[in-house]
Write a structure and sequence with these properties.
The chain is an all-alpha fold. Helix content is 69%, strand content 0%. It contains 8 helices and no strands. Helix 1 crosses helix 3, helix 6 packs across helix 7 and helix 7 packs across helix 8.
């Protein structure tokens, strides 16, 4: 029975991952997520249902459009598979509990903003405004911490990044600031600090490596959203273990 549920979650994650990729690309461009339907960006041919099977269609078509043979970016099946895998492992980390909808909603937001930030360097307000009331509702229904922790987490998450932006004179994007405020509702005060530390560390390492390898020119902005996504996921699922390990390391 449990295996069947995991399979259902994998399929759901793959389907939603395909949709999230559309949202992450279209919303920043001010386009509708409904119309026009999925189509090849090279020849504009509308895709059939056989060409829209998450993950499988990419490999069945050998990574090319069936109509014009243009290469299809492997980014599409990657996000589909990533969402599917994250959905599938979530019950292993939080159980089949009231917390599971929160975990799935968090994964959904982070996939969308990763697609958006990497492709357009934007984290759309429309996406954040959709998830903000959803997170508030879910944390009220299934509180993971005291009610005040979500409020403090949101205020501190927003405030810290706003302070960094002011001190660095624009070194932090407005979308990142608002995103951390929304994430603070789910992560709480402790989770926000852990997420920020991990995101900052990964961002610094990747940024230095990219510039040393001349992949990114000095002074060019690097999207911080994906690092926030990684840090937030690690913090959400493991921040208690990370803090315990850190305390043991110090003492």
């Amino acid at each position: 029975m449990e295996l069947t549920l995991h399979i259902y979650l994998f399929i759901l994650g793959a389907i939603l991952g395909s949709f999230y990729n559309v949202v992450g690309l279209r919303v920043p461009a001010g386009e509708s997520i409904v119309s026009p339907g999925s189509h090849c960006p090279a020849c504009n041919k509308n895709l059939t249902w056989m060409e829209l099977i998450p993950i499988l269609s990419f490999f069945l078509q050998k990574g090319r459009c069936r109509n014009c043979a243009t290469k299809i970016s492997p980014v599409y099946p990657f996000y589909e598979a990533l969402t599917a895998c994250l959905f599938t492992i979530s019950p292993l980390l939080v159980g089949w509990s009231k917390e599971l909808p929160i975990a799935l909603a968090l994964i959904s937001l982070l996939i969308i903003i990763t697609v958006s930030d990497l492709s357009t360097m934007l984290i759309p307000d429309k996406v954040l405004l959709f998830f903000l009331p959803l997170f508030i509702l879910l944390t009220v229904i299934s509180p993971l911490t005291p009610w005040w922790d979500s409020i403090v987490g949101a205020v501190v998450g927003f405030g810290i990044l706003l302070l960094i932006a002011i001190v660095s004179k624009g070194g932090m994007g407005g979308g990142d600031i608002k995103l951390f405020g929304v994430l603070g509702i789910v992560l709480g005060l402790t989770g926000v600090f852990v997420a920020l530390f991990i995101a900052s560390f990964l961002g610094a390492v990747v940024g230095i490596a990219a510039r040393m390898g001349k992949k990114v020119e000095k002074g060019s902005p690097i999207p911080f959203g994906p690092f926030i996504a990684i840090g937030s996921l690690i913090s959400y699922f493991f921040h208690n273990s990370i803090i315990e390990w850190y305390i043991q390391l110090l003492f």
